[in-house]
């Protein structure tokens, strides 16, 4: 097993080839950690202690659990057994809808500049949180739909009016562009941790300087942050990649604001 500490949260990770094996390992680790806490005069908050089984397999035992046991809220993100982010996007959509109501009310009192500031404070901040984890998920389309509604409110458009131009006019990143920005910036920050294609093989090919993508045995692994981060980063021109981080981020953000991409594939096709 593995023990992960982040701020005041302690996470136990147990891995195994079967559910029984994982449960046994998890039980042993829980006992050991509880004993350590007791020896150091610390208490485990049982009401805030959650467990979650993550697997691509379908276990009949899990089907009998209540929906609340099939996902947990961890550091502000709703994580489910399949890591498909459906629950997280569902909860986030509810919050977005509440903020849409607030923006409609504020529109009667504020100027467009004030309303735009309210958008960034209330709406942008919550959809940008953790987007690098869930921004690629199909369920994120619901969040993007809510974001377009918010932009229509700011731009005083009707319900079904196209708002792609207004994203550019208001200098607001679309949700896919927000995901692209955070993904490529993550790779840029941790560039030394990645291998180039020339490190993997000795062939002198045109793309030898590009970052190497690991081969995935199963399709679902292509949903990982590292997969899309590398794929999107490899699209960037060498002159942009070589910039210092602050300049790099500013350059990418300006470009994304100008383009207002509606999906990540439009970004890939652009280059």
Helix and strand topology:
Elements: E1 2-6, E2 9-13, H1 19-39, H2 60-63, E3 71-74, E4 77-80, H3 86-107, H4 112-128, H5 131-134, H6 140-155, H7 164-169, H8 175-189, H9 197-200, H10 225-233, H11 238-241, H12 245-259, H13 264-270
Antiparallel strand pairs: 1-2, 3-4
Helix pairs in contact: 3-4, 3-6, 4-6, 8-10, 8-12
- Helical fraction equals 40-55%
Structural shape: globular
The fraction of residues in strands falls at 5-15%
Tally of helical segments: 13
The arrangement of helices and strands along the chain is EEHHEEHHHHHHHHHHH
Uncertain segments are: 64-68
- Please state how the strands of the largest beta sheet are arranged side by side: 1-2
Q: How far do the termini sit from each other?
A: 43 Å
How is the main sheet built?
2 strands, antiparallel
- What is the averaged pLDDT score? 88
Rg result: 22 Å
The count of domains is 3
Can you count the beta strands? Answer: 4
Q: Structural class from helices and strands?
A: mainly alpha
List the defining traits of the structure above.
single chain; 271 residues; mainly alpha; 3 domains; two-stranded antiparallel ribbon; two-stranded antiparallel sheet; 13 helices; 7% strand; globular; RNA-directed DNA polymerase; RNA-directed DNA polymerase activity; Putative RNA-directed DNA polymerase from transposon BS
């Amino acid at each position: 097993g593995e023990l992960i500490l982040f701020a005041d949260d302690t996470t136990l990770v147990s891995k195994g080839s079967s559910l029984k094996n994982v449960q046994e390992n998890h039980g042993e680790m829980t006992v050991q950690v509880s004993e350590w806490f007791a020896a150091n005069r610390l208490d485990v908050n049982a009401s805030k202690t959650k467990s979650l089984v993550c697997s691509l397999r379908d276990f009949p035992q899990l089907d009998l659990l209540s929906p609340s046991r099939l996902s947990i809220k961890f550091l502000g993100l709703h994580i489910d057994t399949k890591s498909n982010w459906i629950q997280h996007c569902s909860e986030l959509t509810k919050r977005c809808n509440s903020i849409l109501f607030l923006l409609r009310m504020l529109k009667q009192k504020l100027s467009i500049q004030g309303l735009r500031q309210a958008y960034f404070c209330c709406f942008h901040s919550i959809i940008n949180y953790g987007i690098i984890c869930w921004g690629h998920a199909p369920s994120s389309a619901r969040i993007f739909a809510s974001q377009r509604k918010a932009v229509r409110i700011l731009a005083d458009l009707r319900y079904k009016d196209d708002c792609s131009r207004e994203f550019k006019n208001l200098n607001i990143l679309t949700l896919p562009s927000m995901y692209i920005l955070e993904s490529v910036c993550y790779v840029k920050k941790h560039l030394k941790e990645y291998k180039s294609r020339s490190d993997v093989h000795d062939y002198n090919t045109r793309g030898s300087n590009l970052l190497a993508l690991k081969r995935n045995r199963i399709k679902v692994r292509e949903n990982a942050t590292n997969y899309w981060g590398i794929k999107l980063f490899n699209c960037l021109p060498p002159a942009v990649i070589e910039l210092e981080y602050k300049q790099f981020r500013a350059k990418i953000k300006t470009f994304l604001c100008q383009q207002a991409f509606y999906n990540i594939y439009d970004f890939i096709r652009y280059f």
